[in-house]
Every structure is written in structure tokens, then in C-alpha cells.
Specification:
By secondary structure, the protein is an alpha/beta fold. The chain contains five helices and seven strands. It is 38% helix and 23% strand. The strands form two sheets. Strands 3-2-1-6-7 form a five-stranded mixed beta sheet.
Length: 159
Amino acid sequence: MRVLGIDPGISGAWAIINVNPNTRPVGVEVQDLPTVPRGAKGNKLSGTVLHQTLAAKVWDIAVIEHAQAMPGQGVVSLFEYGRTFGMLEGIINSFYLPLHYVKPRLWKKAAGLIGLDKDMARAKALDMFPEMIAHLRRKKDHNRAEAMLIAYYGSIGVV
């Protein structure tokens, strides 16, 4: 089974893991979500590029971290986050494959990350996928690690 995991947001990522019948991950591919400039106000998700990229991949189900408001998040950033989340839903649904949502606390609990900082996601992902060290070198690669862990959560049959 091949599971697509998505950490949503402008700085998010996607990962596809391949799991053999005993749920041991045997392969992973990970990339940042593609973005394009949005004028002077930063970047936005490139839905076209993401759709083309995922259309060239093979996967059976998708798991996305469920979008939610964060304390102290401004109205504009919340709107942009929701917009990106909706685009991701639309792109995934266009492939007519199952889409599951997971709350952050659920996949983080399964990964043993509750109460830990985001950088610990990189350490956990590297424990599971040591061959991915080149993709998780930078501190900001925690989004890639989270996408990998979300995909793994989906692969163990708890969604």
C-alpha cells in the first residue's frame, strides 16, 4: 500500500510512503508543497504544479492533517491557511482516491511527539527513514518530517 501524507500550509510538504504487508515502511518520497509568488505578500500554493506532480505518482490513500485555527493566528493568515487547505482537498479529491483527515494530536501521539517541539519530528522521521537524511537536514524540514509521519500514521490502519 502507498500512502500520501500531507502537512498543509504554505510551508507544508507531502510524502508518499510504501508499506509492505506487515506495515514496515520500505520506501518514502517527500517534497515541499510547491508555491508561486503572490505579489509582494509572499507565496501561495501552486495547485497546478502539485496536481501535475501527484498525477505522476502512485498512491492508494491520502491522509491530511486536519486544518484548525491556532491561538493568536491573525485573520489574514487564518484565511490563507484555510484557502490552502481547501485547494489541497480539491486536488486530492480530483484523483477519486480515499482522503482521510487526522487531528495533529492523534498522529503526534502515535509518533510519541506530544508536548515536544517541531524539531523532534525530524528526529523521529530519521529514526524511521534513515535513508532520508538528505531531505531532512535543515531545521525547516520539520514539515517534510511531519508529512512522512502523517503518511505513516495513515499506513498503520488507524484512519
